[in-house]
Design goal:
Elements lengths: L7 E2 L4 E4 L4 E4 L4 E4 L4 H10 L6 H8 L3 H13 L3 E2 L5 E2 L1 H19 L3 H8 L4 H16 L1 H11 L3 H14 L3 H10 L4 H7 L3 H16 L1 H15 L2 H15 L7 H14 L4 H6 L5 E2 H31 L21
Antiparallel strand pairs: 1-5, 2-3, 3-4, 6-7
Helix pairs in contact: 1-2, 2-3, 4-12, 4-16, 6-9, 6-11, 6-16, 7-8, 7-11, 9-14, 11-12, 11-16, 12-16, 13-14
């Protein structure tokens, strides 16, 4: 490897140290690095995206050039680094990259405990109700995130896309309100109760993305819409939920399915492509910010799902007479 080559990490990459070796992981695999000091190797990897040349890395981490070259060769062979990052990307290139991330991330997001327990009927009914309540609050939050994104978009073409999306989405919380009513939960009581802090965190993360860059918001919105663009998967999930939780025939799943069908008809799963597709040039720095933002958003969604499952598991069934939440665990009846 040439001494003045400046290798750069591919995103995403997690670095974990074990006692005698380093473990690297991305969305699809774990890679073990043996034969090199874990701490020095981790430091070397962390310095890669600072723009250091290969010969500079050796002195920075107190390893000889032979060790550094061997480590960099392994990273390159595993597809974890590139040696020359383009100065710019096209919108189509970024869109294709995002779609690949969405596929991997959706598999991780929707194979987690909350969604698996709902699909298999193992979740307690109060967890199902909690999931519906938080979905209601989040979808209602379109007024706080989509309108905000449209207002902050500096590109007129992208602003029109966001505005159209908002006009099609702003009242979709009504579907979830109807689903709550069929579960004998008053949406007005849910409004008084308020959302979980993590639900607000997801909405606020969307707003932060919109402030950073309209393309950051488009990438985050694309992840959200990609979860509902697989119509067959959504129908299978709703069918399973109805079988497990609607033996009385309330039909509470029907409004949810109507919402999914309407989004599919509007083509919301294509919004990210509509935004990025025509863009001729995106700088490498801007592209990196987009990917970093949507990756953080994915982690925020994971925390949100985990919090819904935990919060409604440790709490009693929803009581519309309450005026505030209880965040400390309380003994709950098993129903």
């Amino acid at each position: 490897m040439q001494a003045r080559v400046r290798p750069l990490l591919r995103f995403p990459l997690q670095i974990d140290e074990e006692k005698k070796r380093l473990v690297l992981s991305n969305d699809t695999e774990r890679i073990f690095l043996d034969g090199a000091p874990p701490y020095a190797t981790a430091t070397l990897i962390e310095r890669l995206n600072a723009g250091s040349a290969a010969d500079e890395l050796a002195s920075a981490v107190y390893l000889d050039q032979r060790h550094v070259s061997a480590i960099l060769s392994v990273l390159r062979r595993e597809g974890l680094t590139v040696e020359e990052e383009p100065e710019t990307y096209t919108g189509q290139q970024i869109a294709a990259l995002l779609l690949g991330f969405y596929r991997d991330w959706n598999e991780a997001l929707f194979s987690g405990p909350l969604w698996h327990s709902l699909a298999t009927g193992r979740a307690l009914p109060r967890v199902l109700d909690g999931w519906l309540i938080e979905q209601y609050h989040f979808i209602r939050g379109a007024n706080a995130r989509l309108a905000y994104a449209a207002a902050h978009a500096g590109d007129e073409r992208i602003r029109r896309i966001f505005a159209r999306h908002y006009a099609e989405e702003y009242d979709h919380h009504a579907f979830f309100a109807e689903s709550l009513r069929r579960r004998n939960i008053d949406p007005d009581a849910a409004d008084r109760f308020g959302p979980l802090p993590t639900t607000l965190a997801v909405i606020n993360m969307c707003r932060r993305a919109a402030r950073l860059d309209c393309l950051c918001y488009a990438a985050c919105s694309g992840l959200l819409e990609s979860t509902g663009s697989d119509a067959a998967r959504a129908r299978a999930f709703y069918k399973a939920v109805a079988e497990h939780y609607d033996r009385e025939g309330s039909g509470f799943v029907e409004p949810l399915q109507k919402h999914s069908d309407l989004d599919e008809g509007f083509g919301h799963g294509n919004v990210m492509n509509d935004v990025f597709g025509p863009i001729k040039s995106i700088t490498a720095d801007r592209a990196n910010q987009i990917i970093e933002t949507v990756a953080l958003f994915k982690e925020t969604l994971q925390l949100w799902f985990a919090d819904i499952a935990r919060s409604y598991f440790i709490s009693p069934p929803f009581d519309g007479r309450l005026v505030r939440r209880h965040y400390r665990p309380r003994l709950a009846a098993q129903n």
